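Journal club prep, shared notes

We agreed each person brings one worked example of a sequence with its structure written out as tokens. Mine is Cytoplasmic tRNA 2-thiolation protein 1. I'm keeping it raw so we can talk through how to read the token line rather than staring at a rendered picture. Sequence first:
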Amino acid sequence: MKLCVECRTQRAAMRRPKTSEELCKECFYTAIETEVHETIMATNLFRRGERVAIGASGGKDSTVLAHILTTLNRRYDYGLDLFLLSIDEGIKGYRDDSLETVKRNEQQYQIPLTICSYKDLYGWTMDEIVAQIGTKNNCTFCGVFRRQALDRGAAMMKADKIATGHNADDIAETVLLNFLRADLARLRRCPSIITGADSTLPRVKPFKYVYEKEIVMYAYFKKLDYFSTECIYSPFAARGLAREFIKDLEAVCKACLLLEGLNRGLPRMGVGRTKRNGGDDESC
Ligand SMILES: Nc1ncnc2c1ncn2[C@@H]1O[C@H](COP(=O)(O)OP(=O)(O)OP(=O)(O)O)[C@@H](O)[C@H]1O
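Then the structure, token by token:
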């Protein structure tokens, strides 16, 4: 039986994707939560007394965000007034089901939920828009409307900030997409942990440094209640290509793993052959 390298008492339940350390569940939770807390502290992400809208889609990222922000707010006494804000894009068989999850999260985390719909704000549901425009450019409508809908919903609820569940993988995909589109303004802006800092409603990404795989593991081990189906229109989105490309790069990037080990004082991390990083002579 392998013991957790952190507590050395419990059985290791996983190899942590970010560090390759073998940890028990409790030490894994502590590691993620502490890292998010340190990110929040190091970047002054919130101020005491702020009212924070958590963009809640019912998916894994925003569900874990709601769970971790609620936990940290209590544990470290941030003094934040948290609430869930969901945008109902009007996608039958997808958003209606995920909203049911958010309604349960409202009870589980004991933070109030507000739902704003495209139908009320714009007079159109996404299903109606897709019926007009087809499945090629529909994500443009959805992305632009959702961004504004989150702002309008948060302003209506007198929020000071919007927190979203964007993680390290999402940010890498966005960087790649903006690079491919040669969109320099967005390329410069998109990796920031806080955007619109000077506006009345800044947006923050507390999971900027959290790997998607670790969010999935956290949600799975904690048995969090989240909705895991992809948007029915997303197979047509360009983001999917960026995601595949980054996953392929990750699978062979032995040099990055070795370098990370050296920088973290774990020189043996990534030494030897694993299924994930291939042979010893693989490179980016
Ligand atoms: N319908 C929505 N209502 C409220 N917030 C949303 C909605 N859709 C997305 N968001 C916010 O934007 C973030 C990124 O959403 P996106 O759909 O790009 O990614 P995701 O990785 O699938 O996130 P999640 O797992 O939380 O659904 C979410 O984590 C959430 O905070």
